[in-house]
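Q: Here's a chain of 134 amino acids. Please give me its 3D structure as C-alpha coordinates.
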Amino acid sequence: MEIAAFHPWSPRSHFIAYALNSTLPFVPKNYVHWVETPESHLYSADIPGVRREEVSVEVEDSRYLIIRAESTEDPSRSFHRKFRLPGQVDVDGISAEYAAGVLKVTVPRSFVRRGFFIDPADVSPDTNFLARAA
Protein backbone atom coordinates (compact mmCIF):
# COMPACT_ATOMS: atom_id res chain seq x y z
CA MET A 1 0.00 0.00 0.00
CA GLU A 2 1.37 3.38 -0.96
CA ILE A 3 0.71 6.50 1.11
CA ALA A 4 0.13 9.68 -0.87
CA ALA A 5 2.55 12.49 -0.18
CA PHE A 6 1.29 15.68 1.44
CA HIS A 7 1.31 18.62 -0.96
CA PRO A 8 1.00 22.01 0.76
CA TRP A 9 -0.63 23.59 -2.34
CA SER A 10 -3.37 21.02 -2.84
CA PRO A 11 -7.01 22.02 -2.26
CA ARG A 12 -7.26 19.39 0.47
CA SER A 13 -4.42 20.93 2.47
CA HIS A 14 -6.09 24.37 2.26
CA PHE A 15 -9.34 22.92 3.59
CA ILE A 16 -7.54 21.16 6.47
CA ALA A 17 -5.61 24.33 7.31
CA TYR A 18 -8.83 26.37 7.28
CA ALA A 19 -10.64 23.83 9.49
CA LEU A 20 -7.81 23.77 12.02
CA ASN A 21 -7.24 27.53 12.13
CA SER A 22 -10.83 28.66 11.91
CA THR A 23 -12.23 30.10 15.12
CA LEU A 24 -15.74 30.79 13.79
CA PRO A 25 -17.85 27.73 13.06
CA PHE A 26 -19.93 27.66 9.91
CA VAL A 27 -23.57 28.32 10.78
CA PRO A 28 -26.21 28.07 8.02
CA LYS A 29 -28.57 30.95 7.43
CA ASN A 30 -31.67 29.12 8.68
CA TYR A 31 -30.07 27.49 11.73
CA VAL A 32 -32.27 27.00 14.80
CA HIS A 33 -30.54 26.19 18.07
CA TRP A 34 -32.30 23.60 20.26
CA VAL A 35 -31.63 22.99 23.95
CA GLU A 36 -33.35 20.43 26.15
CA THR A 37 -33.80 21.26 29.83
CA PRO A 38 -35.61 19.27 32.54
CA GLU A 39 -38.57 21.70 32.33
CA SER A 40 -38.80 22.49 28.61
CA HIS A 41 -37.36 22.45 25.12
CA LEU A 42 -35.92 25.79 23.97
CA TYR A 43 -35.62 26.78 20.32
CA SER A 44 -33.83 29.98 19.28
CA ALA A 45 -33.11 31.48 15.87
CA ASP A 46 -31.36 34.63 14.70
CA ILE A 47 -33.65 36.33 12.19
CA PRO A 48 -32.32 39.89 11.79
CA GLY A 49 -34.09 42.45 9.65
CA VAL A 50 -37.55 40.86 9.96
CA ARG A 51 -40.42 42.66 11.68
CA ARG A 52 -42.39 41.04 14.48
CA GLU A 53 -45.53 40.91 12.31
CA GLU A 54 -43.70 38.79 9.72
CA VAL A 55 -42.73 36.04 12.20
CA SER A 56 -45.12 33.19 12.97
CA VAL A 57 -44.89 30.14 15.22
CA GLU A 58 -47.47 27.43 14.62
CA VAL A 59 -48.25 23.95 15.88
CA GLU A 60 -49.51 21.47 13.30
CA ASP A 61 -51.47 18.36 14.35
CA SER A 62 -50.04 18.66 17.91
CA ARG A 63 -46.87 17.04 16.53
CA TYR A 64 -44.96 19.65 14.56
CA LEU A 65 -43.58 23.07 15.45
CA ILE A 66 -43.37 25.38 12.44
CA ILE A 67 -41.33 28.59 12.53
CA ARG A 68 -41.78 31.03 9.64
CA ALA A 69 -40.52 34.48 8.81
CA GLU A 70 -41.82 35.99 5.58
CA SER A 71 -40.02 39.24 4.77
CA THR A 72 -42.02 41.42 2.37
CA GLU A 73 -39.11 43.76 1.69
CA ASP A 74 -36.28 41.26 1.16
CA PRO A 75 -37.23 37.70 0.09
CA SER A 76 -33.73 36.45 0.95
CA ARG A 77 -34.55 37.00 4.63
CA SER A 78 -37.52 34.62 4.48
CA PHE A 79 -37.21 31.69 6.81
CA HIS A 80 -39.07 28.37 7.23
CA ARG A 81 -38.29 25.43 9.53
CA LYS A 82 -40.41 22.50 10.71
CA PHE A 83 -39.61 20.36 13.77
CA ARG A 84 -41.25 17.23 15.10
CA LEU A 85 -42.14 17.85 18.72
CA PRO A 86 -40.83 15.34 21.25
CA GLY A 87 -43.23 13.22 23.27
CA GLN A 88 -44.84 14.52 26.46
CA VAL A 89 -44.94 18.24 25.74
CA ASP A 90 -47.60 20.75 26.74
CA VAL A 91 -48.81 22.03 23.37
CA ASP A 92 -51.10 24.63 24.99
CA GLY A 93 -48.20 26.08 27.01
CA ILE A 94 -45.93 26.92 24.04
CA SER A 95 -44.72 30.52 24.16
CA ALA A 96 -42.60 32.62 21.82
CA GLU A 97 -40.88 35.99 22.00
CA TYR A 98 -39.09 37.98 19.31
CA ALA A 99 -36.74 40.77 20.34
CA ALA A 100 -33.66 42.32 18.72
CA GLY A 101 -33.75 39.90 15.78
CA VAL A 102 -33.76 36.76 17.96
CA LEU A 103 -36.75 34.43 18.15
CA LYS A 104 -37.06 32.28 21.29
CA VAL A 105 -39.67 29.53 21.49
CA THR A 106 -40.31 27.63 24.73
CA VAL A 107 -42.05 24.26 24.59
CA PRO A 108 -42.78 23.11 28.16
CA ARG A 109 -42.70 19.45 29.07
CA SER A 110 -45.82 17.69 30.27
CA PHE A 111 -45.31 15.17 33.03
CA VAL A 112 -48.87 13.86 32.80
CA ARG A 113 -49.10 10.45 31.19
CA ARG A 114 -51.86 10.31 28.67
CA GLY A 115 -53.43 6.90 28.78
CA PHE A 116 -56.40 5.56 26.98
CA PHE A 117 -59.56 4.06 28.35
CA ILE A 118 -61.74 1.48 26.68
CA ASP A 119 -65.30 1.43 27.95
CA PRO A 120 -66.39 -2.21 28.38
CA ALA A 121 -69.82 -1.27 27.09
CA ASP A 122 -68.28 -0.35 23.71
CA VAL A 123 -66.61 -3.75 23.22
CA SER A 124 -68.65 -6.31 21.32
CA PRO A 125 -69.20 -9.70 22.98
CA ASP A 126 -67.47 -11.45 20.05
CA THR A 127 -64.10 -9.80 20.84
CA ASN A 128 -61.37 -12.24 21.86
CA PHE A 129 -58.86 -11.07 24.47
CA LEU A 130 -55.35 -12.41 24.86
CA ALA A 131 -55.27 -11.55 28.56
CA ARG A 132 -57.80 -10.33 31.07
CA ALA A 133 -57.18 -7.73 33.74
CA ALA A 134 -57.21 -8.92 37.31
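Q: Can you summarize the key feature?
A: The longest strand covers residues 40-46.
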